[in-house]
Amino acid sequence: MAQGTTTSTAVIGGKEIEVAVLETVDLACLATREPTEVKKLLGAAQYPGIFFLDLQNDASAKQALADLPSIYESSEKYFDQPHDQKMRDYRKDQEPGYKQSNCDETFEITYDETSKGTPIPPNHILTENAALLKQFTQTCHTICHTMLAAFSSVLALSPPDLLQSSHSPTAPSDSGLKLISEPSLARLADVGENKHTDRGTFTLLFHDCWGLHIELPNEGKWAFTAPPAQGCVLVNVADSLERLSGGQLRSPIHRVTQPADGAAGRHFISYFLRPDNALKEAWARE
Fold first, then answer.
1. Tell me, what's the pLDDT at 1?
2. Which parts of 134-262 are beta strand (E)?
3. Is 107 left (phi over 0), alpha (psi -120 to 50) or beta?
4. Distance between CA 157 and CA 166 in Å, rounded?
5. Cis peptide bond N-terminal to 252, omega within 30
6. Tell me: the pLDDT tens digits for 215-237?
7. Would you tell me the crossing angle of helices 35-46 and 130-152 to the nearest 10 degrees?
8. How far is Cα 245 from Cα 248, in angstroms, rounded to an integer?
9. CB within 8 A of 93, min separation 6: which ones?
10. In what order do the strands lie in the sheet with 221-224?
């Protein structure tokens, strides 16, 4: 029998929209391999491939939640800079650094850089919060590895440690924290199509605004995801995890849009766990 996701409705900006009812999984219970919680994680990752993760009962993650307002404040300060100043962080043909498209601006620092203690240069606008950004990045990285270990305990993979060995703590990778500014537009009709799947392993998305729209192929429709409840983060399976799991887990097609007309500032804080660079390079040669 095909798996399904329940939807409800909400009225946003005077418009009724469909909202996916997503599973909420407790991080602290995953850390102790609580069978019921691991089963919930597996089911949500199989379909629809996106879920909420409750961070409130894990000490390190709880501190990250407390630091989140300061991370948002840092993001707003960064993107409020003049364009020329932000372009000093541009890195050609690399994931990290400053990027701008026709719909958003982003600034990314990698986990490897924060581990070395030098992700942000002196006199940078983010320097005063460099230690906070480093700790937040490391906590997000640990959260992702807790989920990897939980999946390894229930997926019949060969070798059994495939997920962990593909994300070695000592091997270079492009895992990183990304600050995103993506304002909503005055007219919904002006939002460009951007549907995609994420290329990494996991995406953690902290946000307090409507904007993520996911495909529910078993239901034959699309639905919005509500902003995470207090103490939670939205998680979606990405392409590398779908591949490593042999297709057992699903990387969902989604887009960033808005539910109705209305221009406003929107900031998203995301963490992308990505596999080791050596594995990505091996895949590229196939």
1. 39
2. 176-181, 202-206, 212-216, 221-224, 232-237, 254-256
3. beta
4. 12
5. no
6. 999 999 999 999 999 999 999 99
7. 100
8. 5
9. none
10. 7-12, 15-20, 221-224, 212-216, 254-256
CB atoms within 10 A of CB 173: 25
How does DSSP classify residue 9? E
* pLDDT, tens only, 73-99: 999 999 999 999 999 999 988 889 999
Amino acid identity for residue 64 in this structure: A
Tell me how far CA of residue 107 lies from CA of 37, 104, 134, 145, 241, in angstroms: 34, 10, 14, 23, 24
Question: Which two tokens mark 179?
Answer: 């600050």
CA 212 to centroid of chain Cα atoms: 11
Contacts of 64 (CB under 8 A, 6+ apart): 55, 135, 136, 139, 140
What 3 state SS string does 151-182 have? HHCCCCCCCCCHHHHCCCCCCCECCEEEEEEC
Ordered DSSP codes for 63-115: HHHHHHHHHHHHHHHHHTS-HHHHHTTB-TT-SSEEEE-SS-EEEEEEHHHHH
